[in-house]
Design goal:
The chain has 437 residues and is of the alpha+beta class. It has 9 helices and 8 strands. Helix content is 65%, strand content 13%. A 4-stranded antiparallel beta sheet has the order 2-5-7-8, with no helix packed on it. Strands 1-6 form a two-stranded parallel ribbon. Strands 3-4 form a two-stranded antiparallel ribbon.
Length: 437
């Protein structure tokens, strides 16, 4: 039993000691959950939902209740003098305490299309905000993908530079033996030492870039900047995507959420223009009141007791002149609509440029991968041959250093090309209005 407990504790410690490496999908899930921009966009959607409810409520009957109490100053009772009576006849004593209770019901019947237009405007604004929320999620996803692959690239570059450092170190040890046996000069050894130290500087820079990339990744997914995070190092599976610019541009115009959102905001602006023109029509309301007063002014003579009465009214109100206040509101909302129409055209031009730029970028980056692979194969073969010749004293150390340098540059170039292609595909996918998460 003691041995089983010890084994269990060792397993628990081992599991806790292993830091989980995040996949791209897991990074997206964490980042989208923690994004402050998405939280703000969600709040905007909620706000517009409440605005919808507000304007919907204006179309429904409104019920209100009021109450008041008044204490009146003391006055003489109401009395009259009759010719046949020597003394005045008292009609009613003064009632000094007044209680008034009122229940009011009001229903708009026609408001010159104002309330219905405001309701439709709020609905269109809500839909626009929902689309902008989805667009914000896609933008955040793209930022996470970019940070993830830049982190990935920094790790790979550091690995490549470290491997090159090991090669140079072995080269340095071999050369020291050659010098001791008179097969190489001290100058050869110094050249390799300089190259080795330069590579160490590259490694320091690569390590610093890795730390910066990790910090940016942490920031993008919404965790502490100095938190230790690791990602899965799965080599990108490069597949050439078949694209047709004209077809994709049509897709982008139809699917880009920013364009859809602006169209709904244009509809909302049209609704506001209709609402601002409501002054051209009369407003008609149906109102009803129930009173429970003490005394009730409608009963004569007044009695110091509660009585209930009611009334119902059809009210019409029509503004005939307001010194162009309402017409100025119409012009204001019309200008807002004009601004949105211009913004829509600007955005379409921007989308067209973005799609074309990303289209060229995808093609360019894919071609770079093919060239980088050829360069790497050539550099690997050149280094292998140069290494053998150097070991057989058929090549100088300078030639071997050049071969090592070319190999290092080719490895880094291919890594950069692979990552840049993945980012180019993500940017192109985003520019077409497709989801990245």
């Amino acid at each position: 039993m003691k041995n089983l407990i010890i084994l269990f504790l060792l397993i628990v410690v081992s599991i806790n000691g292993q830091s989980k490496k995040l996949s791209l999908n897991e990074s997206l899930e964490i980042g989208l959950k923690n994004s402050k921009d998405i939280k703000i966009a969600k709040s905007v959607v909620k706000q517009s939902d409440y605005e919808q409810k507000e304007y919907s409520g204006y179309l429904l009957p409104k019920l209100s209740f009021g109450a008041s109490y008044s204490r009146l100053s003391k006055v003489d009772p109401f009395q009259i003098t009759m010719p046949f009576s020597p003394n005045p006849i008292k009609i009613q004593d003064a009632i000094l305490n007044n209680y008034n209770l009122k229940l009011n019901l009001q229903q708009p019947l026609f408001t010159g299309f104002k309330l219905s237009s405001l309701k439709e405007s709020a609905e269109n604004k809500y839909t626009a905000n929902e689309l902008e929320l989805e667009n914000e999620k896609n933008k955040t996803a793209f930022n996470i993908i970019t940070a993830y692959y830049n982190y990935f690239k920094s790790i790979k570059v550091l690995q490549i530079v470290t491997e090159n450092s090991e090669r140079l170190k072995q080269h340095l040890e071999d050369t020291k033996i050659f010098v001791e046996n008179g097969l190489a000069t001290t100058n050869d050894l110094l050249k390799i030492e300089v190259r080795y130290n330069n590579n160490e500087l590259l490694k320091i820079n690569a390590a610093n870039n890795l730390e910066l990339a990790k910090t940016q990744f942490n920031k993008t997914i919404g965790v502490e900047l100095n938190e230790t995070t690791e990602i899965e190092l799965i080599e990108p599976n490069v597949n050439e995507i078949k694209t047709d610019y004209n077809t994709d541009l049509t897709i982008a115009f139809a699917e880009r959420l920013e364009l859809k959102s602006l169209l709904y905001r244009l509809q909302s602006a049209n609704n506001l223009i209709t609402a601002s023109k409501s002054f051209l029509y009369p407003n008609i309301y149906l109102t009803g009141n129930v009173y429970y007063n003490k005394p009730n002014q409608r009963e004569m003579p007044l009695k110091d007791e509660f009585k209930d009465t009611w009334d119902i009214s059809l009210v019409l109100n029509w503004e005939l002149w307001d010194w162009d206040v309402n017409s100025s509101k119409v012009e204001q909302t019309t200008e807002v609509k004009n601004q949105l129409e211009t913004k829509y055209q600007q955005l379409k031009e921007s989308v067209e440029q973005e799609v074309y730029s990303n289209y060229l970028k995808v093609i360019s980056e894919y071609n770079k991968i093919k060239v980088s692979k050829l360069m790497l194969r050539s550099s690997e073969e050149n280094y292998r041959i140069s290494k053998e010749k150097y070991n057989n004293q058929l090549l100088t150390s300078s030639d071997l250093i050049d071969a090592e340098t070319n190999l290092l540059d080719s490895q880094i170039s291919l890594t950069n090309s692979l990552i840049d292609y993945e980012l180019a595909v993500a940017a192109y996918t985003k520019s077409l209005g497709k989801k990245l998460y």
